[in-house]
Amino acid sequence: MYYAININEYRQEDIPSLKRLWTETFGDAPELVDRFFELLPSMGTGLVADSGGELLGAAYLLDAELWCPEKPPVKLGYIYAVAVEPSARNCGIGAKLISACERYCWENGIEICTTLPAEESLYAWYERVGGFQTAARCMYETVFPSDSPAEITLLFADEYAFKRADILRDNNYVNLNYGYMLFQEALCKTYGGGLFGCKGGIACGYVDNGVLLVKEVLNDTPEFIPALCRKLGAKSALVRRPDRYGTPFIAAYEAKDLPRDTVWNLALD
């Protein structure tokens, strides 16, 4: 079917339809969806695809910055949660949303446009429709719980962000705004995890089917993740760490603009 598509920034009156589309597409808890839209004005913006006044798709463009030692920060956009109504899929709406996100970046001084493809097969799709290429890679390590007496502290979003910036100050890394960190905190807590500290190290993760998925761990001691695994009642942990030769992770338009050793980690996956 052909749709005459218009793409514009979201308006307040779009939010009920956007929440419904999000819930039907991703299945997240209503309170988490509510929290996302509460924080969206502080995180970035949303682009809405409609035809004749009917909302058919949406994508969100979240603000961040690439920080490199002794260089000024570079504005970075992160495309998140691209969704299209089931009845309107395979009509090119997703591709038009990606193109609109890229155009928004260039028109608003955002120099690097990135995303995290939801599955491996989508890397080729993003390259085809938006010129995206793999810009950051990672490796995964399985860790099991232990009875380590390591003292683990639950951190607030601002505490985690401050510690993260301090740990990464001599690295190339993606700095995430406070609204983004608040949503990351809400996402992890909704699914049995959170933001944690232990002996100067930090970790962010949540539990899925008994497995602790560790999105980021920095400056950690060997006992940190095994002890966190036990604390959260997980049978094991899957730990993600940057690895320039590992599994494709973040994709970016003009991937060369993102240094290969950039620490990204905290994607909203």
Please state the CA-atom Rg, rounded to the nearest Å: 19 Å
Structural class computed from helices and strand pairing: alpha+beta
Span between termini: 31 Å
CATH architecture annotation of the largest domain: 3-Layer(aba) Sandwich
Describe it:
With 269 residues, the protein is α+β, with helices and mostly antiparallel strands. It has two domains: 6-136 and 247-257, Aminopeptidase; 137-242, Aminopeptidase (3-Layer(aba) Sandwich). Helices cover 30% and strands 33% of the residues. It has helices at residues 15-26, 30-43, 93-107, 122-130, 157-167, 178-190, 224-231, and strands spanning 6-9, 44-51, 54-67, 74-84, 112-115, 132-134, 137-143, 153-154, 173-176, 194-198, 201-208, 211-218, 236-242, 247-248, 251-253. The strands form two sheets. Strands 1, 2, 3, 4, 5, 6, 9 and 15 form an eight-stranded mixed beta sheet that branches. It has a seven-stranded mixed beta sheet with strand order 8-10-11-12-13-7-14, sandwiched between helices.
